[in-house]
Every structure is written in structure tokens, then in C-alpha cells.
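Residues determine shape. Next comes a sample protein:
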Amino acid sequence: MGSQVYFDDVSVGQEIPSLTKDVNTVNILMYVAAVWLMDRIHFDNPFAVKRRGLPDIVAPGNMAGDYYVQLLTDWAGDKGRLRKLALQFRNFMIPGNVLTCGGRITAKAVEDGKGRVDLELWIKNQDGVVCVPGKGVVELPIRAA
């Protein structure tokens, strides 16, 4: 368990600690089995490549959403809350990718006595290509409260 981050201690432009994820066939298969996502592009290479024209099997977009949830809730700590998450699928996440999930604070404000932090988010592969850009809103505790 990490330390608690407070609204008072963050600033616009600040990057949050990143999260690294390795994409491989095993974690894709485990994920699609757990969520009952049985589209063959996620586990059948000949189907994905020859029939659908993909570069390989592809990780489901839902995995990226879950990576963002982990990134933001780990950063926000036990007293923080993830309020909003939006993402776009721009490039495939395929086996062999090493993904870096990160974010930067774009705005902060106190609303109804709570610290609101808006973030620009990204998931980049090892080549620096953004696979899944996103935006998030996190509520952080205020020290004085």
C-alpha cells in the first residue's frame, strides 16, 4: 500500500507515477476468459491475421480501461475516488508490447468541499506510440478537511 496523495500537494502540469504492463498471449487469454469476451481476434492468431487483417491477436480495449483504473486508484490512494474515465482506442495492443500507462494533471479545483483533479492520460507502447489516449477525473482528499 502506497502513501496517500492529497489535493493540496498536486499541481497542474504534474505527472503521476506511471504503471508498466507487459502484453502477452497468456494475460490476454486470462483476461478474455475472465470477462467472457470470446471474439476470436483476441485468441486465434490465424483468424485475426488472415481473416481480419490484424497484425496479431489483439488485447481487448477493456484491458486498457482496467489499466487506467489501476493507475488512477493506486495513485489516488484509499481516500481518493475515481469519478470519471474516458478513453479512445487508437492503436492495437499486441503480444510483445510493453505498455507505459501515465497521466498529467490538467486542472484542479475545489467543488462542494472536495478536491477535483482532471488528468490527461496515455497508454504508450515501447515505441512511444499512444495506443489508448484518455481523460480522467479523480477526487482527492483535502488536508484541511
Remarks:
- The chain has three helices and five strands.
- The helical segments are 25-34, 45-51, 61-76.
- The two ends are 23 Å apart (CA to CA).
- Residues 76 and 138 are 7 Å apart (CA to CA).
